[in-house]
# Entry
Amino acid sequence: MKQISDTRSPSPRGEIPPTSSRSAIQSSASLAAGKILHSTLDGVGTVTFNNPAKHNAMSLDMWVALGEAVNALSADPEVRVIILAGAGGKAFVSGADISQFEELRHNAEAAAQYALQSAAARKALDDCPKPTIACIDGFCLGGGLLVAMLADIRVAAEASRFGIPAAKLGVAYGYHGLERLVALVGPARAGLLMFTGMQIDAAEAFNIGLVDHVVSASTLWEHTMRLARTIADNAPLAVAAAKVTIAQILKDSACRDMEAVQRIEMQCANSDDFREGRRAFMEKRRPVFHGC
# Structure
């Protein structure tokens, strides 16, 4: 089900962001019985975790729908950046829906099947060709923290809480999540969080490198949208080149795809956007980029 309208899209808290200079063409869709929403506005795609009664805890159908939503926005040529946000103002994502564990993750075989189905969402975020921003308001725990760590940028409200309670549940967090955690905060702090199952506040999360910006809850959506629109106004190929190159830098040197880096560098050098950027600079005006 897809709807098109000319209205501005509300934030997860219900605030209305200002319309930018581009035309306000919005599309929206609902997945997983309304628990995953995605919309587009002025080059910015938004995925909303909409299960506030459970602090946006992720059921298996939400994991599947998350992958579908991210893939849809990734394939949309009008979308230049994607925001991930939680509805309700209490949580980004509070983790997996533990009420499903007895049925879906009660032993190793069931857990492997669950991981296989939810892996598509993690891969969609990992492989997303467009910049992603996690807009974190409230609890960001367990699998929710993994979602946030898979984003390129993390912006958090001051009262947000972060943690991985795997040790308190008797479950292993998984290699992919710990790889991200160690890359962001280092092995010692990763071990501290994992061994204790402790929660930390947004200030500490910022201090250890887990989040990039901390702002008041009242300005969180405005700040995130401003950041997204700044990215959306830049040359898409140049932004994509940065994302591709950063991804290759993070790989072991033997596994780096330098041909991919060189290809996108050549695309940028031969692009109309590069010519537009040069002309706009010389003419002292704002450039208008088209991604080609």
